[in-house]
Amino acid sequence: MSDHAVLHVKGRVLAGPDDVRDELWVVGGRVTYDRPVGPAAETVTVEGWALPGLVDAHCHVGLDAHGPVDAATAEKQALTDREIGALLLRDAGSPSDTRWIDDREDLPKIIRAGRHIARTRRYIRNYAHEIEPDDLVAYVAREARRGDGWVKLVGDWIDREAGDLTACWPRDAVEAAIAEAHRLGARVTAHCFAEDSLRDLVEAGIDCVEHATGLTEDTIPLFAERGVAIVPTLVNIATFPGLAAGGEKKFPRWSAHMRRLHDRRYDTVRSAYDAGIPVFVGTDAGGSLPHGLVAAEVAELTRAGIPPLAALSATTWGARDWLGRPGLTEGAPADLVVYEADPRQDVRVLAAPRRVVLNGRVVA
Questions:
Q1: Which neighbouring-strand residues pair with 48?
Q2: What angle do CA 278, 205, 202 make, to 5 degrees?
Q3: β-bridge partners, 46
Q4: How far from 256 is each of 165, 193, 249, 265, CA to CA, in Å?
């Protein structure tokens, strides 16, 4: 397909949950629903069911299990996401500088949250700024300026003295830090596995919580009332039993806690959805997990009881709206994925895209 070709997508274009078109065109890298007129141009036709490029709202480009990676590895991570149709990534914390990706029209678009901010010795080595509460506001301001409108806190982690997960930050520290992020125009999210940190973070004004396995009948109504989103990362929560087994001898309380959180994971997500909490798709890829898992995460949300159309929205229309990025609207950059069959009928279709179109070009 040449740079001057017109791409014609026909069949069913799922521009929104209630907006289904028969066709669209891509002209000059952008979406239009008006048939092109004027001098004849090469036209490439693709048939099938089209969705906006998928969103992975929690991944880490430029990071692996040991810390920052080189540019070649980060490129492979981004390409792996592209191949499955994940064309908009919210990088939920990375120590690597991946700004060079913004200059590559063949790689997914990234919304960065800067580097993780964690309590000293309370997170994975080489991942985060490890600081004490008195420095939290300053580091939040730093990462708010470094990121793309998001800041990432580590809200809880294993406390070796307690032998279990505990909250990392006192209430007054997170209140001041979140207020500073909002003053600078950034939203704040936090890694949270357990129960104890959630109320303070939400009442302090946090915008999103990652994982959120510690939600209970006491905190679910609070999240719903405040409109705080969650990104459950169920493909990551599936690793909890293995983590628990590895820590059994040294931290038995922590291991038992992790197993309980895992056992109730589907009930937690479904209860959150039923209460009206916004739920979005994220995989946590780039730490210990490989990239390219967005289709598997959508399937996990449906196993939790979220209806297929809502699970699709959590990685397409709804997720893009939440992140402030367009979908298949007139004049938007043509980032879309075409499938053999209707993903509304079976979300497993997402695992096998027929065509991936990024910035108006067929890339996969």
A1: 11
A2: 65
A3: 9
A4: 11, 13, 11, 14
| Cα-to-chain-centroid distance, residue 43 | 34
Reply yes or no on whether the pLDDT at 3 is more than 70: no
Model pTM score:
0.97
- Alpha carbons within 13 angstroms on the beta-carbon side of residue 4 total 4
Tell me how crowded residue 117 is: count the other CB atoms within 10 A of its CB: 27
In the DSSP assignment, the letter for residue 35 is P
Q: Write the CB contacts of 117 (distance below 8 Å, at least 6 apart in sequence).
A: 128, 129, 131, 136, 139, 140, 143, 151, 152, 153, 154
Beta-bridge partners for 361:
358
Burial class (CB in 10 A: 0-12, 13-18, 19+), 249: exposed
Q: How far apart are CA 312 and CA 289, in angstroms?
A: 22
CA distance 52 to 38: 27
CA distance 17 to 345: 13
Give the neighbor-by-neighbor strand order of the sheet with 229-231.
129-131, 117-119, 150-154, 187-192, 208-211, 229-231
For residues 225 and 106, what is the distance between their CA atoms, to the nearest angstrom? 40
The strand pairing partners of 12, in sequence order, are 49
- Which residue reads 């990239």 in tokens? 291
Interval 88-139: pLDDT, tens: 999 999 999 999 999 999 999 999 999 999 999 999 999 999 999 999 999 9
The one-character DSSP state at 165 is: E
- Is residue 234 within 8 Å of residue 301, measured between CB atoms? yes
Q: Are residues 111 and 90 in contact, defined by beta-carbon separation less than 8 angstroms?
A: yes
Token pair of 77 as six digits = 């991570």
pLDDT tens digits, residue range 301-343?
999 999 999 999 999 999 999 999 999 999 999 999 999 999 9
